[in-house]
Amino acid sequence: MKRKSKFGKESPHWKGGKLKHICIGCKREHEKWPFQTNKKYCSNKCRLAHEIKNRQLKKCLYCGKPFSCPPCRTKRRFCSLNCCNLWAKGERSPFWKGGKIKTVFGYITTYAPTHPYCNSLGHVMEHRLKMESHLGRHLLPTEIVHHINGIKDDNRIENLGLFSSRSDHAKHHHPKGEKVKRLITKGFKKGNVPWNKKIG
After folding, report:
1. Torsion angle (degrees, nearest 10) of CA 38, 40, 46, 48
2. In whole angstroms, what is the distance from residue 84 CA to residue 184 CA?
3. Which of 18, 82, 147, 199 has the fewest Cβ atoms surrounding its Cβ within 10 A?
4. DSSP of 6-22, one letter per residue?
5. Where are the domains of the chain?
């Protein structure tokens, strides 16, 4: 035979039924269940009326504009989510790891949002910053910093060289005639004909 489940006062988990409490908004006595430990108001209508009446004025930590918040949000420090995201950048970010990121191409970027030539994330190539600190000026966008030993993350000043343009940097990597020779011999594999060789 199936056992009959016991409800109410016959249950071994009975805790006396509803408990009496005083509402914070209307100051009246109401009832609540024992599991409703965080219930402070008798209804949502009473909660909204109390929050509107007792809103607090605070100052935004980022933009400085005053804003109001309900009593349940006294720890709020920003007027909007945009201000919170703008404030939590750089060293204030919970994901801060020193401000250095290694790109997929092997170069290291450093967080420098005040740099005139930083990218959209506020990062600048570390080898360019090292060269700028060595020269005492900002590099032009046309100037190229070269790694002498070919290791892209070796940013010691002894390993860095400066070219005035991209063409000078390309000439250093590809001496006269090397690039043309490579293009001519590239298409001879598996019987292919290079693009600059006439057929017939």
Report:
1. -60
2. 57
3. 199
4. P-GGGSTT---S-EEEE
5. 18-81, 100-164
